[in-house]
Design brief:
The chain is an alpha+beta fold. It has seven helices and twelve strands.
Length: 261
């Protein structure tokens, strides 16, 4: 584990990299002893710092919850990050690519909670009972670690490589579709670039949300009513370039579009 000074130094490096759009070398290269608990505490340090500057927690995300994303990133287990209110991006406005280091797009079904989730012991039934509606989502991920050379501790410390989310207009209650079996297709500039099924997310994205509620409880974090939860991508992540237009279509759940400049 890292000592307190090293954790603070790591948080400072990541925050500066995000503000300056200047990726840093992996934390695991600088501090080989960094572990998962260190990484979550580093993440929380920067979340608290941003909230002190005026941001508000809007929800949470699960990352690396599908085999395709774990293989792509070279890790073997999920992680989680925070979604802040300034990370919720408008679908009708182009997103400046220059705001990020190395952005990518992921396809997800978002869960919007109508009630607080229990922490320890949270089940899939608890999640479905507390979910007010499901929403089509495109998550924007980014890495403040140079060239995406991340180990698990690197991405966790870096707020699970989260950067933003665009939501579609559809609002569907969990009983109206099966969130464990939604086909999704991602197009870039009109051409299909990825396709998947939500069953790729731990077998059922609801399982990922329940895992998240149990995991964050260990750090005193609660998933509250009104929070948006992203359970993880059901397709591979796709690189973003200026001028690209992405559209994800979900069977039974509508679509969502993100434009970049």
């Amino acid at each position: 584990m890292l000592n307190l000074d090293h954790r603070r130094a790591a948080a400072d490096l990541l925050r500066a990299a995000e503000l300056d759009r200047a990726p840093i070398e992996p934390l695991t290269a600088r501090w080989p002893e960094v572990d998962v608990e260190d990484a979550y505490r580093i993440q929380l340090d920067n979340v608290r710092r941003r909230c002190a500057e005026g941001a508000r927690v809007r929800g949470h995300k699960v990352g690396l919850s599908s085999p395709v994303m774990q293989r792509m990133m070279g890790v073997g287990e999920p992680d989680y990050g925070h979604l802040l209110d300034d990370m919720v991006l408008a679908a009708d406005r182009p997103i400046p690519v220059a705001r990020y280091c190395a952005p990518r797009i992921e396809v997800e079904v978002g869960y919007v909670l109508g009630a607080r989730l229990p922490g320890r012991g949270c089940t899939e039934a608890d999640v479905l009972a507390a979910t007010e509606y499901l929403v089509p989502a495109l998550e924007l991920i980014d890495s403040r670690i140079r060239d995406w050379r991340i180990a698990l501790a690197d991405t966790i410390a870096d707020n699970a490589s989260s950067a933003g989310v665009v939501l579609g207009e559809a609002r569907v209650r969990p009983g109206e579709i099966d969130p464990a079996d939604v086909e999704a297709v991602l197009h870039r500039d009109g051409a299909e670039v990825a396709r998947g099924n939500t069953s790729a997310v731990l077998g059922d994205p609801t399982t990922a949300v329940a895992w998240l509620a149990r995991t964050v409880a260990e750090f005193g974090v609660v998933l509250e009513a009104g929070h948006l939860v992203l359970p993880g991508s059901c397709t591979r992540a796709v690189d973003v370039d200026p001028g690209s237009v992405f559209r994800a279509e979900f069977a039974g759940l509508g679509h969502v579009t993100a434009r970049f400049e």
